[in-house]
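Fig. S4 source data, part A: sequence.
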Amino acid sequence: MRDRGDAVTVLDLRPPEVEGVAFVGGDAGDASVVERVLDDRGIDAVVHAAGVLGQGPSLAEPRRFRAGDAEAGGVLRRGVRARRPVPRRVTPSPRTG
């Protein structure tokens, strides 16, 4: 996305390991944070790649895994659907990469 000139904003609990993106510290499962980012930044596309990584953490802490993946994704989807025009949304499989 950056290579084609798109402005990229990352919403996460930790700063990204790449340069050239705007960072907003926050939880993608927090509706007020998601709404603020969507409204303040003029977002026109959303890629949801947040979540707890790895099978080990998902088995050891299933509630944390569900909150990080499914519930946060639901908050993000509801935030996107509430916008007009609706931003494009991409949800990659957690098994990619």
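Fig. S4 source data, part B ends here. The mean pLDDT is 78.
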